[in-house]
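S., here's the first fold you wanted:
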Amino acid sequence: MHLPDGLLPLGQSMIYFIIVLIPLALYFFKLSKNDSKEKIIVSTGILSAAAIAGSSISIPSPFGVPIHFFIIPLAAILVGPLSGVMVAFLCLLVQFLFLGMGGITSLGANVFTMGIMISCSTYFFYKLTLDLNEKLAVFCGTLLGIIMGTITQVFILVLAGVATFEMLLASLIPFYLFIAVLEGAVNVFIISFISKIKPEMLKMDKI
Protein backbone atom coordinates (compact mmCIF):
# COMPACT_ATOMS: atom_id res chain seq x y z
CA MET A 1 0.00 0.00 0.00
CA HIS A 2 3.09 2.23 -0.11
CA LEU A 3 2.64 4.73 -2.94
CA PRO A 4 6.01 5.79 -4.43
CA ASP A 5 7.15 9.27 -5.46
CA GLY A 6 5.96 10.49 -8.85
CA LEU A 7 2.72 8.53 -8.88
CA LEU A 8 0.49 11.35 -7.67
CA PRO A 9 0.29 14.92 -9.03
CA LEU A 10 2.18 17.29 -6.74
CA GLY A 11 -0.93 19.38 -6.05
CA GLN A 12 -2.86 16.34 -4.83
CA SER A 13 0.12 15.24 -2.74
CA MET A 14 0.17 18.61 -0.96
CA ILE A 15 -3.54 18.34 -0.15
CA TYR A 16 -2.97 14.99 1.59
CA PHE A 17 -0.06 16.50 3.55
CA ILE A 18 -2.32 19.31 4.79
CA ILE A 19 -5.08 16.86 5.77
CA VAL A 20 -2.61 14.69 7.69
CA LEU A 21 -1.37 17.67 9.72
CA ILE A 22 -4.80 17.98 11.39
CA PRO A 23 -4.85 14.63 13.29
CA LEU A 24 -1.14 14.95 14.07
CA ALA A 25 -1.76 18.38 15.63
CA LEU A 26 -4.75 16.95 17.54
CA TYR A 27 -2.54 14.11 18.79
CA PHE A 28 -0.01 16.52 20.32
CA PHE A 29 -2.76 18.74 21.74
CA LYS A 30 -4.58 15.84 23.43
CA LEU A 31 -1.28 14.35 24.58
CA SER A 32 -0.32 17.60 26.31
CA LYS A 33 -3.62 17.53 28.25
CA ASN A 34 -3.38 13.86 29.26
CA ASP A 35 -2.05 12.85 32.69
CA SER A 36 -0.73 9.56 31.28
CA LYS A 37 1.29 11.19 28.49
CA GLU A 38 4.50 9.34 29.41
CA LYS A 39 2.85 5.93 29.12
CA ILE A 40 1.18 6.91 25.85
CA ILE A 41 4.49 8.14 24.38
CA VAL A 42 6.27 4.94 25.39
CA SER A 43 3.48 2.74 24.01
CA THR A 44 3.37 4.75 20.78
CA GLY A 45 7.14 4.39 20.39
CA ILE A 46 7.04 0.63 20.97
CA LEU A 47 4.17 0.17 18.54
CA SER A 48 5.94 2.35 15.96
CA ALA A 49 9.00 0.10 16.19
CA ALA A 50 6.76 -2.97 15.90
CA ALA A 51 5.02 -1.45 12.86
CA ILE A 52 8.36 -0.71 11.17
CA ALA A 53 9.57 -4.25 11.77
CA GLY A 54 6.29 -6.03 11.08
CA SER A 55 5.36 -4.15 7.93
CA SER A 56 8.88 -4.54 6.53
CA ILE A 57 8.77 -8.34 6.66
CA SER A 58 7.64 -9.97 3.42
CA ILE A 59 5.39 -13.03 3.75
CA PRO A 60 4.62 -15.25 0.73
CA SER A 61 0.99 -15.25 -0.41
CA PRO A 62 -1.13 -17.29 -2.87
CA PHE A 63 -1.42 -14.13 -5.00
CA GLY A 64 2.25 -14.33 -5.97
CA VAL A 65 2.91 -10.97 -4.29
CA PRO A 66 4.44 -10.86 -0.79
CA ILE A 67 2.22 -9.46 1.95
CA HIS A 68 3.09 -7.08 4.77
CA PHE A 69 1.13 -6.70 7.98
CA PHE A 70 0.14 -3.13 8.86
CA ILE A 71 0.21 -3.23 12.71
CA ILE A 72 -1.70 0.09 12.58
CA PRO A 73 -5.05 -1.54 13.54
CA LEU A 74 -3.42 -3.04 16.63
CA ALA A 75 -2.00 0.36 17.58
CA ALA A 76 -5.41 2.02 17.17
CA ILE A 77 -7.06 -0.56 19.43
CA LEU A 78 -4.37 -0.34 22.10
CA VAL A 79 -3.60 3.39 22.24
CA GLY A 80 -6.37 5.08 20.25
CA PRO A 81 -6.98 6.38 16.72
CA LEU A 82 -4.84 9.53 16.89
CA SER A 83 -1.97 7.53 18.34
CA GLY A 84 -2.47 5.08 15.48
CA VAL A 85 -2.03 7.95 13.02
CA MET A 86 1.21 8.93 14.77
CA VAL A 87 2.44 5.32 14.63
CA ALA A 88 1.70 5.24 10.90
CA PHE A 89 3.49 8.57 10.33
CA LEU A 90 6.63 7.48 12.19
CA CYS A 91 6.62 4.06 10.56
CA LEU A 92 6.22 5.41 7.01
CA LEU A 93 8.83 8.12 7.55
CA VAL A 94 11.44 5.63 8.80
CA GLN A 95 10.60 3.17 6.02
CA PHE A 96 11.13 5.87 3.40
CA LEU A 97 14.37 7.19 4.91
CA PHE A 98 16.05 3.85 5.64
CA LEU A 99 14.25 1.12 3.69
CA GLY A 100 13.33 2.84 0.44
CA MET A 101 9.62 2.11 0.86
CA GLY A 102 7.06 4.71 -0.23
CA GLY A 103 8.20 8.25 -0.98
CA ILE A 104 8.52 11.73 0.48
CA THR A 105 6.02 13.46 -1.83
CA SER A 106 3.58 10.58 -1.34
CA LEU A 107 4.07 10.50 2.44
CA GLY A 108 0.93 12.54 3.06
CA ALA A 109 -1.21 10.23 0.92
CA ASN A 110 0.30 7.12 2.53
CA VAL A 111 -0.34 8.45 6.04
CA PHE A 112 -3.85 9.47 4.99
CA THR A 113 -4.53 5.92 3.79
CA MET A 114 -2.70 3.82 6.36
CA GLY A 115 -2.82 6.26 9.25
CA ILE A 116 -6.04 8.23 9.23
CA MET A 117 -8.33 5.80 7.38
CA ILE A 118 -7.07 2.47 8.75
CA SER A 119 -6.53 3.72 12.30
CA CYS A 120 -9.79 5.69 12.66
CA SER A 121 -11.91 3.09 10.86
CA THR A 122 -10.44 0.27 12.94
CA TYR A 123 -11.17 2.11 16.19
CA PHE A 124 -14.68 3.07 15.07
CA PHE A 125 -15.71 -0.49 14.15
CA TYR A 126 -13.91 -1.88 17.20
CA LYS A 127 -15.89 0.35 19.56
CA LEU A 128 -19.08 -0.26 17.58
CA THR A 129 -18.94 -4.04 18.12
CA LEU A 130 -17.14 -4.15 21.49
CA ASP A 131 -20.35 -4.68 23.48
CA LEU A 132 -21.12 -7.80 21.43
CA ASN A 133 -17.82 -9.61 21.89
CA GLU A 134 -14.25 -8.38 22.38
CA LYS A 135 -12.64 -10.89 20.00
CA LEU A 136 -15.26 -10.15 17.35
CA ALA A 137 -14.63 -6.43 17.85
CA VAL A 138 -10.88 -6.83 17.35
CA PHE A 139 -11.35 -8.95 14.23
CA CYS A 140 -14.06 -6.74 12.69
CA GLY A 141 -12.20 -3.55 13.53
CA THR A 142 -9.00 -4.81 11.90
CA LEU A 143 -10.77 -6.28 8.88
CA LEU A 144 -12.97 -3.27 8.13
CA GLY A 145 -10.20 -0.80 8.94
CA ILE A 146 -7.88 -2.32 6.32
CA ILE A 147 -10.72 -2.54 3.79
CA MET A 148 -11.56 1.14 4.34
CA GLY A 149 -7.90 2.00 3.85
CA THR A 150 -7.84 -0.02 0.63
CA ILE A 151 -10.95 1.71 -0.72
CA THR A 152 -9.39 5.06 0.13
CA GLN A 153 -6.26 4.18 -1.81
CA VAL A 154 -8.41 3.13 -4.78
CA PHE A 155 -10.03 6.58 -4.86
CA ILE A 156 -6.64 8.29 -4.47
CA LEU A 157 -5.26 6.40 -7.46
CA VAL A 158 -8.40 7.00 -9.53
CA LEU A 159 -8.22 10.76 -8.82
CA ALA A 160 -4.56 10.68 -9.85
CA GLY A 161 -5.50 9.01 -13.14
CA VAL A 162 -3.27 6.01 -12.47
CA ALA A 163 -5.84 3.33 -13.32
CA THR A 164 -9.58 2.75 -13.65
CA PHE A 165 -11.85 2.19 -10.67
CA GLU A 166 -12.85 -1.28 -11.84
CA MET A 167 -9.25 -2.39 -12.41
CA LEU A 168 -8.13 -1.23 -8.97
CA LEU A 169 -11.10 -2.82 -7.19
CA ALA A 170 -10.47 -6.15 -8.93
CA SER A 171 -6.76 -6.16 -8.08
CA LEU A 172 -6.48 -4.48 -4.68
CA ILE A 173 -9.62 -5.57 -2.82
CA PRO A 174 -9.02 -9.39 -2.97
CA PHE A 175 -5.35 -8.96 -2.04
CA TYR A 176 -5.93 -6.67 0.94
CA LEU A 177 -9.03 -8.61 2.02
CA PHE A 178 -6.74 -11.64 2.37
CA ILE A 179 -4.30 -9.59 4.46
CA ALA A 180 -7.16 -8.13 6.53
CA VAL A 181 -8.47 -11.58 7.47
CA LEU A 182 -4.99 -12.79 8.44
CA GLU A 183 -4.13 -9.66 10.43
CA GLY A 184 -7.54 -9.71 12.11
CA ALA A 185 -6.94 -13.25 13.34
CA VAL A 186 -3.42 -12.36 14.52
CA ASN A 187 -4.69 -9.30 16.38
CA VAL A 188 -7.34 -11.40 18.15
CA PHE A 189 -4.56 -13.67 19.40
CA ILE A 190 -2.34 -10.73 20.44
CA ILE A 191 -5.13 -8.90 22.31
CA SER A 192 -6.19 -12.15 24.04
CA PHE A 193 -2.57 -12.75 25.07
CA ILE A 194 -2.20 -9.21 26.41
CA SER A 195 -5.48 -9.48 28.35
CA LYS A 196 -4.06 -12.50 30.18
CA ILE A 197 -0.52 -11.34 30.96
CA LYS A 198 -0.90 -7.54 31.13
CA PRO A 199 -4.61 -6.55 31.16
CA GLU A 200 -3.82 -3.01 32.32
CA MET A 201 -2.51 -2.27 28.82
CA LEU A 202 -6.04 -2.57 27.48
CA LYS A 203 -7.31 -0.11 30.10
CA MET A 204 -4.76 2.66 29.57
CA ASP A 205 -5.86 6.07 28.28
CA LYS A 206 -6.36 6.28 24.52
CA ILE A 207 -6.12 9.34 22.32
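And the second, which I think is the more interesting of the pair:
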Amino acid sequence: MSRSLLQSNKPHLPSVAKPDFRRCSPSRTSQPSFRRRLKYFYWRLVRMQGSSRAIARGFACGIFAGMMPLFGLQTILGVLLAVPFRGNKFLAMTGTWVSNPLTYVPIYTFNFHVGRWLLNKSDLMDLNFDSWQQMKESGAEISLILLVGCLAVGFVSGILSYFISLRLITKFRAAYHLQRQRKNWHSHQQKNGSEIL
Protein backbone atom coordinates (compact mmCIF):
# COMPACT_ATOMS: atom_id res chain seq x y z
CA MET A 1 0.00 0.00 0.00
CA SER A 2 1.47 3.29 -1.04
CA ARG A 3 2.12 6.16 1.27
CA SER A 4 -0.21 8.47 -0.70
CA LEU A 5 -3.08 6.00 -0.25
CA LEU A 6 -2.50 5.84 3.51
CA GLN A 7 -2.50 9.60 3.77
CA SER A 8 -5.72 9.89 1.79
CA ASN A 9 -7.50 7.38 4.09
CA LYS A 10 -6.30 9.08 7.27
CA PRO A 11 -9.25 10.56 9.20
CA HIS A 12 -9.29 14.32 9.29
CA LEU A 13 -9.45 15.61 12.88
CA PRO A 14 -10.53 19.16 13.64
CA SER A 15 -7.66 21.45 14.35
CA VAL A 16 -7.40 22.64 17.93
CA ALA A 17 -6.69 26.31 18.33
CA LYS A 18 -3.82 27.25 20.54
CA PRO A 19 -5.12 28.61 23.83
CA ASP A 20 -4.74 32.34 24.24
CA PHE A 21 -3.50 32.83 27.78
CA ARG A 22 -3.96 36.57 27.52
CA ARG A 23 -7.71 36.06 27.63
CA CYS A 24 -7.44 33.85 30.71
CA SER A 25 -5.44 36.38 32.68
CA PRO A 26 -7.43 38.22 35.34
CA SER A 27 -8.37 41.72 34.37
CA ARG A 28 -9.92 44.61 36.13
CA THR A 29 -13.26 43.96 34.49
CA SER A 30 -13.38 40.40 35.88
CA GLN A 31 -12.99 41.63 39.44
CA PRO A 32 -16.31 42.23 41.22
CA SER A 33 -17.00 45.92 41.48
CA PHE A 34 -17.83 47.74 44.70
CA ARG A 35 -21.42 48.13 43.52
CA ARG A 36 -21.77 44.39 42.95
CA ARG A 37 -20.33 43.64 46.38
CA LEU A 38 -22.72 46.12 47.96
CA LYS A 39 -25.63 44.56 46.11
CA TYR A 40 -24.57 41.09 47.25
CA PHE A 41 -24.34 42.27 50.86
CA TYR A 42 -27.79 43.87 50.55
CA TRP A 43 -29.41 40.65 49.29
CA ARG A 44 -27.64 38.62 51.95
CA LEU A 45 -28.86 41.06 54.58
CA VAL A 46 -32.54 41.01 53.59
CA ARG A 47 -32.56 37.21 53.24
CA MET A 48 -30.68 36.61 56.48
CA GLN A 49 -32.29 34.33 59.03
CA GLY A 50 -33.32 35.86 62.35
CA SER A 51 -35.22 38.91 63.48
CA SER A 52 -34.18 42.43 62.57
CA ARG A 53 -33.39 43.11 66.23
CA ALA A 54 -31.04 40.12 66.44
CA ILE A 55 -29.22 41.24 63.30
CA ALA A 56 -28.90 44.80 64.64
CA ARG A 57 -27.64 43.49 68.00
CA GLY A 58 -24.96 41.47 66.25
CA PHE A 59 -23.83 44.49 64.22
CA ALA A 60 -23.72 46.64 67.37
CA CYS A 61 -21.55 44.03 69.12
CA GLY A 62 -19.18 44.08 66.16
CA ILE A 63 -18.96 47.88 66.18
CA PHE A 64 -18.20 47.87 69.91
CA ALA A 65 -15.50 45.21 69.46
CA GLY A 66 -14.04 47.13 66.52
CA MET A 67 -13.37 50.12 68.78
CA MET A 68 -11.22 48.06 71.16
CA PRO A 69 -7.42 48.18 70.74
CA LEU A 70 -7.20 44.39 70.34
CA PHE A 71 -5.56 43.92 66.95
CA GLY A 72 -6.42 40.50 65.57
CA LEU A 73 -8.85 39.68 68.38
CA GLN A 74 -11.67 42.09 67.53
CA THR A 75 -13.57 39.53 65.44
CA ILE A 76 -13.40 36.96 68.24
CA LEU A 77 -14.56 39.55 70.77
CA GLY A 78 -17.46 40.59 68.51
CA VAL A 79 -18.68 36.99 68.14
CA LEU A 80 -18.28 36.31 71.88
CA LEU A 81 -20.33 39.41 72.69
CA ALA A 82 -23.02 38.39 70.19
CA VAL A 83 -23.62 35.11 72.05
CA PRO A 84 -25.02 36.51 75.34
CA PHE A 85 -26.79 39.36 73.54
CA ARG A 86 -28.34 36.84 71.10
CA GLY A 87 -27.09 38.79 68.12
CA ASN A 88 -26.27 37.65 64.62
CA LYS A 89 -22.68 36.37 64.57
CA PHE A 90 -22.07 37.11 60.88
CA LEU A 91 -23.01 40.77 61.40
CA ALA A 92 -20.87 40.82 64.54
CA MET A 93 -17.87 39.82 62.41
CA THR A 94 -18.83 42.37 59.76
CA GLY A 95 -19.15 45.18 62.31
CA THR A 96 -15.53 44.80 63.41
CA TRP A 97 -14.44 45.90 59.92
CA VAL A 98 -15.02 49.48 61.07
CA SER A 99 -11.44 49.34 62.31
CA ASN A 100 -8.93 48.39 59.63
CA PRO A 101 -5.44 49.53 58.63
CA LEU A 102 -6.94 52.66 57.04
CA THR A 103 -8.93 53.70 60.13
CA TYR A 104 -6.73 52.58 63.04
CA VAL A 105 -4.97 55.91 63.49
CA PRO A 106 -8.00 58.26 63.40
CA ILE A 107 -10.17 55.95 65.55
CA TYR A 108 -7.61 55.39 68.31
CA THR A 109 -6.46 59.01 68.26
CA PHE A 110 -10.05 60.11 68.80
CA ASN A 111 -10.57 57.46 71.49
CA PHE A 112 -7.42 58.58 73.26
CA HIS A 113 -8.60 62.21 73.35
CA VAL A 114 -12.00 61.10 74.67
CA GLY A 115 -10.32 59.04 77.40
CA ARG A 116 -8.05 61.93 78.33
CA TRP A 117 -11.07 64.23 78.56
CA LEU A 118 -13.03 61.72 80.70
CA LEU A 119 -10.12 61.15 83.09
CA ASN A 120 -9.18 64.86 83.10
CA LYS A 121 -5.59 64.14 82.06
CA SER A 122 -4.83 67.39 80.27
CA ASP A 123 -1.36 67.55 81.88
CA LEU A 124 -0.21 64.34 80.20
CA MET A 125 1.72 66.16 77.49
CA ASP A 126 3.96 67.79 80.13
CA LEU A 127 5.66 64.47 80.88
CA ASN A 128 9.42 64.14 80.44
CA PHE A 129 10.28 61.12 78.28
CA ASP A 130 14.01 61.27 79.06
CA SER A 131 13.57 59.10 82.15
CA TRP A 132 12.92 55.36 81.65
CA GLN A 133 10.91 55.16 84.89
CA GLN A 134 8.69 58.03 83.80
CA MET A 135 8.25 56.43 80.39
CA LYS A 136 7.09 53.19 82.05
CA GLU A 137 4.66 55.06 84.27
CA SER A 138 3.36 57.17 81.42
CA GLY A 139 2.99 54.07 79.22
CA ALA A 140 0.64 52.49 81.76
CA GLU A 141 -1.24 55.77 82.05
CA ILE A 142 -1.54 56.13 78.27
CA SER A 143 -2.84 52.55 78.03
CA LEU A 144 -5.45 53.27 80.70
CA ILE A 145 -6.55 56.48 78.96
CA LEU A 146 -6.84 54.68 75.63
CA LEU A 147 -8.81 51.81 77.18
CA VAL A 148 -11.27 54.18 78.88
CA GLY A 149 -11.70 56.14 75.66
CA CYS A 150 -12.23 52.97 73.62
CA LEU A 151 -14.82 51.65 76.08
CA ALA A 152 -16.73 54.96 76.08
CA VAL A 153 -16.64 55.44 72.31
CA GLY A 154 -17.42 51.76 71.71
CA PHE A 155 -20.42 51.87 74.03
CA VAL A 156 -21.89 54.98 72.38
CA SER A 157 -21.08 53.70 68.86
CA GLY A 158 -22.65 50.33 69.64
CA ILE A 159 -25.91 51.91 70.82
CA LEU A 160 -26.08 54.29 67.85
CA SER A 161 -25.27 51.54 65.34
CA TYR A 162 -27.97 49.32 66.87
CA PHE A 163 -30.75 51.85 66.31
CA ILE A 164 -29.47 52.96 62.88
CA SER A 165 -29.00 49.41 61.60
CA LEU A 166 -32.36 48.30 63.05
CA ARG A 167 -34.12 51.05 61.14
CA LEU A 168 -32.24 50.31 57.90
CA ILE A 169 -32.72 46.54 58.12
CA THR A 170 -36.45 46.94 58.81
CA LYS A 171 -36.74 49.30 55.84
CA PHE A 172 -34.74 47.01 53.51
CA ARG A 173 -36.74 43.95 54.51
CA ALA A 174 -40.07 45.75 54.06
CA ALA A 175 -39.01 46.86 50.56
CA TYR A 176 -37.83 43.33 49.74
CA HIS A 177 -41.12 41.74 50.85
CA LEU A 178 -43.12 44.36 48.95
CA GLN A 179 -41.08 43.63 45.82
CA ARG A 180 -41.72 39.89 46.21
CA GLN A 181 -45.46 40.46 46.69
CA ARG A 182 -45.61 42.56 43.52
CA LYS A 183 -43.67 39.94 41.61
CA ASN A 184 -45.99 37.16 42.84
CA TRP A 185 -49.05 39.25 41.98
CA HIS A 186 -47.78 39.94 38.45
CA SER A 187 -46.98 36.26 37.87
CA HIS A 188 -50.44 35.32 39.21
CA GLN A 189 -52.09 37.82 36.85
CA GLN A 190 -50.13 36.50 33.87
CA LYS A 191 -51.06 32.94 34.77
CA ASN A 192 -54.76 33.81 35.02
CA GLY A 193 -54.58 35.71 31.71
CA SER A 194 -53.01 32.73 29.93
CA GLU A 195 -55.66 30.39 31.34
CA ILE A 196 -58.48 32.65 30.07
CA LEU A 197 -56.91 32.74 26.59
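Why I say that: The radius of gyration is 30 Å. Confidence is low (pLDDT under 50) at residues 23-27.

Talk tomorrow,
H.
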